[in-house]
What we know:
Elements: E1 3-4, H1 5-11, E2 16-19, E3 23-29, E4 36-41, E5 45-51, E6 53-57, E7 62-66, E8 70-73, E9 76-83, E10 89-95, H2 97-106, E11 123-126, H3 130-145, H4 151-166, H5 172-183, H6 189-196, H7 203-209, H8 214-225, H9 229-244, H10 252-258, H11 264-275, H12 279-287
Helix pairs in contact: 2-5, 3-4, 7-8, 9-11
Domain HTH araC/xylS-type: 187-285
Keywords: DNA-binding, Transcription, Transcription regulation
GO molecular function: DNA-binding transcription factor activity; sequence-specific DNA binding
Amino acid sequence: MALDLKKFFISNQHCNKIISDDYMFIEFNCPIEMENFKLWTEIPFLAYIVSGRKDWTTLNKTYCLKEGDAVFVRKGVFKTKQYFEENYCSLLFFITDDFIRRFCKEHHEALPKTSADFLENQIYKINVNDPLSSLFLTVFNYLKAGKEIPKGLVEMKFKELLFNITIDPLNRELVALFNSIQQVEKTNLNDVMIKNFQSDLTLEEYARLCGRSLSTFKRDFQNHFKETPGKWLNNKRLEYAKMLLQNQDLNINDVCWESGFKNTSHFNSAFKNKYKLPPNQFRKEHYNL
């Protein structure tokens, strides 16, 4: 089961944090028991690595992040793997789509005009220059001090972060994403589902990921995909499992978990119902593995 980051950090008493309606600052020191984890977030966030190393993996790419690196993570599901040669500490800046929209509308004349050719990624590497690195560390020192920070100062630092990122030409892919968020009031349901169908989220969690109530999510889903979420998810996961069976490095349990099923008996039954053969036999007859 994927860990809900928002709930985890709100309830976690062992990390420094500042929480408001549209943003959340977190200083996170990752414990050893979280070496490998599947996570999901309904709120986009910036991550800056203060120390240590960690791999962040999406459906189609792995990002190896080390001290001084930064990324912007879109809402969705991803995996992390930690290395324990060094202590891992990161700063996380959760920023709602509404905050990004307001920033873009207020400062649209100053933002670079970019094309929308870079919108498929879930994770965007950020070029960290000296001013941006100093700003990250300033915020880190605020959190370490443990004193209450005025709301106005927090919002100013958020906007300063976004300004430093958006005026750097090397971050044009992320600027294109920000511009696209500004232009769309509702989260793109098709985009979210295609990128995250293989994750074992509940329908309520998918609804939150899409920025909708459960009832609105079901209605919009039916209108767009012309079938119920449950049926669509089952078919997409089976199609993905069929593709994964070609990978001889994955056993049937691996294929089951990677495609989003929670137990192998249900997976085997659903696969046989759709493809007329259980996964093991299908692999032998169709892929000679």
